[in-house]
Amino acid sequence: MNGIKISSRKAKGRNLQKMVRKILLEHFEKKLEEDDIRSTGMGQSGVDLLLSPLAQKLFPYSVECKNCESLNIFKALEQAEHNSTDKLKPIVIFKRNRSKTFVTLEFDEFLRLLKNQKNNEEENTIPI
Questions:
Q1: 89-95 vs 102-105, strand pairing mode
Q2: Residue 31 lies in a domain
Q3: Cα distance from N-terminal residue to C-terminal residue, the chain
Q4: How far apart are CA 51 and CA 30, in angstroms?
Q5: Bridge partners of 89?
Q6: C-beta atoms surrounding 70 within 10 Å
Q7: What is the pLDDT confidence band of residue 2, given thresholds at 50, 70 and 90?
Q8: How many distinct structural domains can be found in the chain?
Q9: Domain contains 60
Q10: The domain containing residue 84 runs over which residues?
């Protein structure tokens, strides 16, 4: 398959998982401990990031990480949906070599995030 060894493909995926974990821990640094978000091993079934109950409250997403040159986004979303729960919404975080990192989520969830952002902005404004 396109010349790259399986071990190299798995290492790319593992590196993305570790990067996402690190960024999430930094974002919630005052609220989460190191073991609140754990990266799962390659080849394990289920989510790519295991979240403690507290982490699930702060970040209610079932994460599927993909670091590959060619991605079937619908297959990745199907995998994320399969691993999601009622509490955790499916998202796919993906990138390829020398590219930005992207996230895909359901449009309804995106709208919910926008609504929450708008509500937070309105709460922080001072009426004149």
A1: antiparallel
A2: yes
A3: 63
A4: 16
A5: 61
A6: 6
A7: low
A8: 1
A9: yes
A10: 6-123
* 3-state DSSP helix/strand/coil % of the chain, to nearest 5: 45, 20, 35
pTM for this entry = 0.83
Asked if residues 86 and 100 have their Cβ atoms less than 8 Å apart, the reply is no
The number of residues in the chain equals 128
The answer to the question of residue 84 being in a domain is yes
- Within a domain: 70: yes
| pLDDT tens profile 60-118 | 999 999 999 999 999 999 999 998 988 999 999 999 999 999 999 999 999 999 998 88
Contacts of 56 (CB under 8 A, 6+ apart): 87, 88
Helices (H), strands (E): how many in the chain?
4, 5
- Gap between the Cα atoms of 78 and 64, Å rounded: 10
- Identify whether the C-beta of residue 17 lies closer than 8 Å to the C-beta of residue 95: no
**How far is the C-alpha of 55 from the C-alpha of 84, rounded, in Å?**
15
Q: Judging by beta carbons within 10 Å of its beta carbon (0-12, 13-18, 19+), is residue 9 exposed, middle or buried?
A: middle
Interval 13-41: pLDDT, tens? 789 999 999 999 999 999 999 999 999 87
8 Å CB contact between 91 and 102: no
